[in-house]
Amino acid sequence: MEKINQFSLQRFTLLMQRYIMFNSKTWLIGIGAISGVMLVIGLITAYFSQGYFDVRSLVNTGQTIIFIGGFIITSMAYNEIHTPARSQFYLTLPATTAEKLFSHWLITSILFVLISNVLLSLVLLLANAIGYVAWAVPINMFNPFTQANLQLMAIYVVVQSIFFLGALYFRKNNFLKTILSVFVIAMALNLIAILFAWLLFGQTSFDGNFHSINPEMGSYFEITLPKIMKTIFYIVLVPFCLVVSYFKLKEREV
């Protein structure tokens, strides 16, 4: 007999199916509404611009919607455990904490990115097809596999992990409280950076060029430090948020 404290792909898959089933109706309504709005915007733009289909503008709009919509969906990922009438049932499901955590994270991060980009491509394809038939608009397709779009989606996955942690940490208004927390932390880091700069350069006339004061310091602040921050952002932040989320969910189960 399989032990509950061991990872099970079958249980993991069932948890994903359960989460999708409980939220599919809301997601489909949102997808339909957003797709319809983007399609109308694209056709109106093509009509009033004498047959020019501004795919870049629509892609930017779609990517903005992906970010905002994804963060909102992520912030609602654990509403079930914040609802007294439903939390006990979810927390006592015969599955490990890791299975409960990663089933939700995988859907709201990787799976969401894949599906949203496919849907964006399909909406733009439909708008292109209608524009071509109606006004002979030149076909201008969206390629989601460009380096710029892939990098943008990677940024989404990283930032999404913060909202995922917020979904577990905050009991109400998760989305707004997460944004506020990120703002407060960013302000605190900026103040620390300003204080650090004042301690180093407060007695000098600093023009923003570190090399004018110390070449080695200039290389550190302009080359080494940005690499460190980039590494922290892309490699450290997601595991950190997931580990903290794991222990937060474990705490709720206890």
Chart the SSEs and their pairings.
Blueprint: H1 9-48, H2 55-75, H3 84-91, H4 97-135, H5 147-169, H6 174-201, H7 215-253
Helix pairs in contact: 1-2, 1-4, 2-4, 2-5, 4-5, 5-6, 5-7
Explain what the structure shows:
Helix content is 78%, strand content 0%. The radius of gyration is 23 Å and the shape is flat. The chain is built from seven helices and no strands. Helix 1 (9-48) packs antiparallel against helix 2, helix 2 packs parallel to helix 5 and helix 5 crosses helix 7 (215-253). The mean pLDDT is 86. The two termini are 24 Å apart. It is mostly helical and 254 residues long.
Whole-angstrom Rg: 23 Å
Mean pLDDT: 86
Number of helices: 7
Q: Compute the number of strand runs.
A: 0
Order of helices and strands: HHHHHHH
**Multimerization state:** single chain
What is the overall silhouette? flat
* Measured distance between first and last alpha carbons: 24 Å
- The amount of helix comes to over 70%
- Strand proportion, as a percent range, falls in under 5%
Q: What's the main sheet like? A: none
Residue ranges: pLDDT <50 for 5 or more in a row? none
SS-based class: mainly alpha
